[in-house]
Amino acid sequence: MVEAWHRPTEAIIDLSAIKENIKLEKGLLKKPQQLFAVVKANAYGHGLIPVAFAAQAAGADGFCVAVIDEGLALRRAGITKPILILGVNPAATAPLLAANSLAVAVDSLEFLKQAAVSLHAQQLRLAVHLALDTGMSRIGFKTTDDLAAAVDFLRTHTKEFDFQGIFTHFATADAAEADYYQQQLKKFKQLLTVVDPLPTYVHVANSAASLWHQACGGNMVRFGVSMYGLNPSGHVRKLPAAFKPALSLVSELAAVREIQTGESVGYGKTYTAQQTEWIGTVPLGYADGWLRRMQGSKVLINGHSCEIVGRVCMDQIMVRLPQRLPVGTKVTLIGKDGQQQITAQQVADYAQTIHYEILCGISERVPRKYL
Ligand code: PLP
Question: How high is the ipTM of this complex?
Answer without folding.
Answer: 0.99
